[in-house]
Amino acid sequence: MIIRIAVCAWALWIAVALGGQSGPALSYLYTQAPAYDSHATLPGTERFPSGATLQFVSNGSKREFLPAFAASADAAVSFDGQRVLFAAKKQAAGPWQIWEAALREGAPRRITRADETEDSLAPFYLPGDRIVYAQRTASGFQIMRAALTGGEAQQLTYGPGNHIPTGVLQDGRILFEAAHAAGQRDLFTVYPDGTGVETYRCDHGPDRSSARQLASGDILFNTAGALARFTSARAVQVSSAQPKGEVVGPVSEIAPADWLVSLRTAANGTYSLYRWRGGEPELLAGHGLQPVLARPHAAPKSFPSALRERPGANLLCLNVYTSRTAIPSGTVTTVRVWTLDDHGAPVAMGQAPVERDGSFYVQAPGERPLRFELLDAAGKIVAAEKGWFWARRGEQRVCVGCHAGPEHAPENAVPETLLRSTDPAIMTLPVHDSTGGAK
After folding, report:
1. What is the pTM of this model?
2. Residue 60: what pLDDT?
3. Which residues pair with 187 in a beta bridge?
4. Bridge-partner residues for 375, per DSSP?
5. Which of 107, 254, 270, 337 could join 258 via S-S bond, C-beta 3.0 to 4.6 A?
6. Per-residue pLDDT tens for 318-372?
């Protein structure tokens, strides 16, 4: 009996020494970087101006995960917990590219084959041996989908600015951050085929970044160094419990109320990686951020694409008067559709009637920036989008209203625009003259 009590006491001491958890010791990866610019994703500049290295912690010991690389970051663990995606540079002056390596052993293999001037970063696994990541293009970072086995990558985002994935939701949508019209970052979602892009809450609140989905389904994100969340019961963000200090980058959930989090505190003056279970956080590593658990986890749902063969995207608005901003009933007679030309200048593609019930139906060119303006009978603007969205070629999209928000449901009625005709008004790209200007 004395021996058994002693053994139990020894097991309890080991559990406390390993951070208080029962069972196997915690295994995780994180990025160690002496400097980190948390706002670099907005202008598309370098996040790690002094370099970065992935670290792997397992069974109480730490090692550099990729010592042969000049820089490495953005670890994402496969659903079976056996492999790791990451962004890395082979040479310090080279571009970031996406690689994959076995978690325990094996040589890394390069996934992306972009031009030497094109950075690729922020990778995540998708079902069906596919991945999603951001690649630098002439119009900013765009989200790409690719097969792990190779082949041509498919572009999923088409708006101006930088689009950076932050995770894949349980329902299969890709969660990403990008600038909204006010010049701050917001959270958006898009399906793995590039359809259905929308802001997560459409309230265009404060700067939001580094989002992750928790096991509860809530979206936890960073706003001005503090944590906030979106929960299904609320249409706006709510504050979240967090340890004292300024939160830097994303949080990794070990269990409910048990997180790995990077903090900048008054005590150390710089950011470090902590484990927080309420109360005082436990310091794990200096200059640590982007933690990710090295363990199996559930794969998100697969998304069957509904894209069809057609030259453009069919866009149906049910009622322009269903809006967060007041639009007086009966004032809108026409919708005007804009795009950006090849030089980045806005050009109008055409107009279509808006019916008495506020509905309209247009076909716009796919995979180009789009923006709507609502006009009255005199041709004056009643309301206008400030930012740009897009639709995939072959996409059939229905919106409840204009700036309505995802919590609105449509009326159970056939829109008058479809009673008039089931053929959409065709919006065409402007014809350019020899100097590149729109005619």
Report:
1. 0.90
2. 85
3. 177
4. 334, 381
5. 254
6. 999 998 888 999 999 999 999 998 888 999 999 999 999 999 999 999 999 999 9
Distances from the Cα of 2 to the Cα of 9, 10, 11, 15, 180, angstroms: 11, 12, 14, 20, 66
Q: Give Cα separations from 53 to 29, 86, 102, 209, 289 (angstroms).
A: 10, 11, 17, 22, 11
Give the residue from 379, 283, 296 showing the smallest Cα distance to 336. Answer: 379
Structure letter (DSSP) for residue 308: -
Q: In 3-state terms, what secondary structure has residue 411? A: coil
List beta partners, residue 136: 141
Cβ neighbours for 271, distance < 8 A, ≥ 6 positions apart: 36, 246, 248, 262, 263, 264, 287, 288, 289
Beta strands in 111-204 (DSSP E): 120-126, 130-137, 140-147, 154-155, 164-168, 174-179, 185-190, 198-199
Q: For residues 64 and 29, what is the distance between their CA atoms, to the nearest angstrom?
A: 10
At 96 the pLDDT is: 96
Cβ count near 275 (within 10 Å)? 21
pLDDT digits (tens, 9 = 90+) for 55-79: 999 988 999 999 999 999 999 999 9
Cβ atoms 294, 81 nearer than 8 A: yes
Cα angle at 136 between 84 and 120, to 5 degrees? 15
Distance CA 361, CA 265 (A): 53
pLDDT at 5: 37
User: Tens of pLDDT along 383-429?
Assistant: 999 889 999 999 999 998 887 766 677 788 899 999 999 999 999 88
Contact between residue 88 and residue 120 where contact means Cβ atoms under 8 Å apart:
no
Q: Is the pLDDT of residue 376 over 70?
A: yes
* 3-class secondary structure, 416: helix
Place of tokens 């970065």: 52
pLDDT digits (tens, 9 = 90+) for 131-182: 999 999 999 999 999 999 878 899 999 999 999 999 999 999 999 999 987 7
Nearest-angstrom CA–CA distance, 285 and 166: 23
Cα 169 to its chain centre, rounded Å, is: 10
Closest residue by Cα to residue 275 from 95, 12, 21, 43: 21
